[in-house]
């Protein structure tokens, strides 16, 4: 069970970090001085909730295994809306074929470098080694939610998945 006053914290943060997941306290930190729009906050909360989901589901070794961190960052960038076409256009980065994957890869590397003191080469290698498996892991949504309507459908599917699976 998630309790807003226990599992979410709004704080002032250094740099341009928007949020984070603290695995020791199972708490999501929102950087109130760096989030200016509701849509941005929604993406940050979704991104960090994916880390929380991975923490509970996969027992991620956040500090000793950079591949674990890379996988969670790939999943969070892929599923949170970080790499939507509109966000990429706002960053003046856009392309056609394979652009979503490129964005996910780049944002995962950037996130690793923001939270760990590793070289760019180490971060890139970790992301490349786990990319395919982690990019294709769409839990708990079952799909990449490209819009609000798609996210609502994914959530409804998630709520009903036990009912569907019991009929198999």
UniProtKB/TrEMBL annotation:
InterPro entries: Peptidase_M76_ATP23. Keywords: Hydrolase, Metal-binding, Metalloprotease, Protease. The keyword Protease applies. Its EC number is 3.4.24.-. GO terms for cellular component: mitochondrion. GO terms for molecular function: metal ion binding; metalloendopeptidase activity. GO terms for biological process: mitochondrial protein processing; mitochondrial proton-transporting ATP synthase complex assembly. Belongs to the peptidase M76 family. This is Mitochondrial inner membrane protease ATP23.
């Amino acid at each position: 069970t998630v309790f807003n006053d226990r599992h979410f914290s709004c704080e002032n943060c250094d740099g341009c970090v928007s949020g984070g997941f603290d695995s020791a306290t199972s708490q999501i930190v929102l950087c109130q001085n760096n989030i200016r729009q509701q849509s941005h906050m929604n993406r940050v909360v979704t991104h960090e909730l994916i880390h929380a989901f991975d923490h509970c589901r996969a027992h991620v070794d956040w500090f000793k295994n950079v591949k674990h961190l890379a996988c969670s960052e790939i999943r969070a960038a892929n599923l949170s809306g970080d790499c939507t076409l509109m966000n990429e256009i706002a960053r003046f980065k856009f392309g056609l074929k394979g652009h979503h994957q490129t964005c996910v890869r780049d944002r995962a590397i950037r996130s690793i470098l923001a939270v760990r003191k590793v070289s760019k080469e180490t971060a890139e290698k970790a992301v490349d080694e786990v990319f395919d498996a982690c990019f294709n892991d769409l839990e708990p949504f079952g799909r990449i939610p490209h819009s609000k309507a798609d996210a609502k459908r994914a959530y409804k599917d998630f709520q009903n998945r036990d009912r569907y699976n019991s009929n198999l």
